[in-house]
Design goal:
The protein is α+β, with helices and mostly antiparallel strands and 103 residues long. The chain has one domain (7-98). It has helices spanning 41-49, 68-73, 95-98, and strands at 7-13, 20-26, 29-34, 54-57, 63-65, 79-82. The strands form two sheets. It has a three-stranded antiparallel beta sheet with strand order 1-2-3, with no helix packed on it. It has a three-stranded antiparallel beta sheet with strand order 5-4-6. A hairpin with a 6-residue loop joins β1 (7-13) and β2 (20-26). The longest helix is centred in the middle third of the chain and has 9 residues, at 41-49. The relative contact order is 0.21. Residues 14, 16-17, 19, 84, 86, 88 line the site of zinc ion.
């Protein structure tokens, strides 16, 4: 029998946009969410419509994915957070930038 690991969330900073995030491993899958919680059902619906998964941060520090059943049941205590969606695009360095000769 095998088990998928879960690790508690740690406060992190997105390396691209520098926003505050929470990173964890939930049932074997790495996840990163915005640190600011969603405070209304409408905010969670908006996040879901944007294609972002939502998670509940439990009092013990675990991020648990909110699938349709968990959203409908809403029985897991904690704050709800949306998956982090970075708005900053990766920048491909040019050769000139790499050698410090960018104009
Ligand atoms: Zn980001």
């Amino acid at each position: 029998m095998s088990y998928l690991i879960s690790k508690t969330a740690a406060e992190t900073t997105c390396p691209r946009c520098r926003r505050q995030t929470l990173s964890a491993i939930e049932e074997g899958i790495p996840c990163r969410v915005d640190r600011a919680p969603l405070t209304t059902p409408a905010a969670e619906i908006t996040a879901l419509l944007d294609g972002r998964h939502t998670f509940v941060l439990t009092p013990r520090g675990y991020l648990i994915h909110r699938d349709a059943g968990r959203i409908a049941g809403n029985t897991i205590p904690g704050t709800i957070h949306a998956e982090h969606q970075c708005t900053t695009k990766a920048h491909q360095l040019t050769i000139d930038e790499m050698i410090g000769q960018a104009k």
